[in-house]
Specification:
With 282 residues, the protein is an alpha/beta fold. The protein is 39% helix and 13% strand. Helix 1 packs parallel to helix 2, helix 4 crosses helix 5 and helix 8 (239-247) packs across helix 9.
Length: 282
Amino acid sequence: MTDKLFIGCHLSSVKGFEHMGREALSIGANTLQFFTRNPRGGRAKDIDPEDAERFLALARENGFGKLVAHAPYTLNPCSATEKVRAFAYTAMEDDLKRMEFIPGNYYNFHPGSHVGQGTEKGIELITELLNRVMRPEQTTTVLLETMAGKGSEIGGRFEELRAIIDGVELDEKLGVCLDTCHVSDAGYDIAGDLDGVLEEFDKVIGLSRLRALHINDSLNPLGAHKDRHARIGEGTLGLEAIVRVISHPQLAGLPCILETPNDLDGYGREIKLLRESRQDRL
């Protein structure tokens, strides 16, 4: 348990790891998230091992928390289309190999949408993929993201994530990333009853599985099943609710990643606001 706040935002990896690290430091961040490849496609940029080493040194020197890599949005392991599932396998297998250039961090993905096959079949396909791509020697922890439950999306209920975990053989290398916007849109009252939501999470999944947080306000009311992020304090959750999340003792030490609609300066302002608001609360 630590009182240190690890907070950052989503940054572009186009210019490499060291550049991302320096951008993070320029806005007061001490963690970050990046896409492993084009978020709307399949192409992955070649990794420069020397750049990765320079970043790791920079991160150590500046006390960075765990990093969160994000799989592309096009990755859908429970698609009804074989070609889409094949891409999910190829991309995730490659991503987990590439993650070993920055060992010991997190790889987050959206569980996917079953598109009419049913939740049970969707969960079966997701666990099948994870059992194929995960390796005993990997140092990366794979994170299932909590989702808003829109359409045929898997992961809007904690029980669905639990079912995936139960079907994965290397489950010790599996965790969860909780998104504040998503869980609220899914119907969990994180703004009005944070302790109750965490209690439910612990009962169904186990808080030891919770490894990272996506910190977002929401444009939609509780239970809307929409998934539209808002800047901190400009949505239905509000600043105070977000500060309670990042200040909660059971969530201490987790990387907090902003995915709000912002540019770099906007992220810097949000990070400053959240650090100051959290300090006032402690």
